[in-house]
Amino acid sequence: MKLNIGGTEAKDGWKILNIQSAPNVDFVGSCIDLSQFQNESFSEVYASHVLEHLSHRNDLQAVVGECHRILEPDCQLKISVPDMVTLCRLFSAENATVASRYDLMLIMFGGQVDEYDFHHVGIWEEFLAHYLKQFGFTSFERVDVFGLFDDFSEYRVAGELISLNMVATK
What we know:
170 residues, Rossmann fold, 7-stranded mixed β-sheet, 27% strand
């Protein structure tokens, strides 16, 4: 079984966990507490543009640890988050317009359309790698795209991919 955390798009072989009930959502709950799932019960876990909604003090560590726990040995966690380094570079570019900076600000801090659409942490490659290593992932690498779902993992601004996409192996 494969788990898409925060998703809404149905796909064969995947179950969806989301904080909000919606069509195609199989499990409603927070990714911080995955206790509804047994140890080593998933062959793959995918979380696209979810981790930035968590606190860097406790929540981020909890979800990385929980993902490690529910993954089968030698299986992968695939994470996509807004890349803070890329966003800052695009935001501070001399040719950035007011409109483009506003759009980037929304990516940095969330669209804030509901109580869950706020970003609480900026994430970059070394920061994420630190947590993955701390919670027992044996290898991790940055990839351009996953090609799994139609989501923000492949979103581009001014032709540039704004997501940090990483694959971590348990």
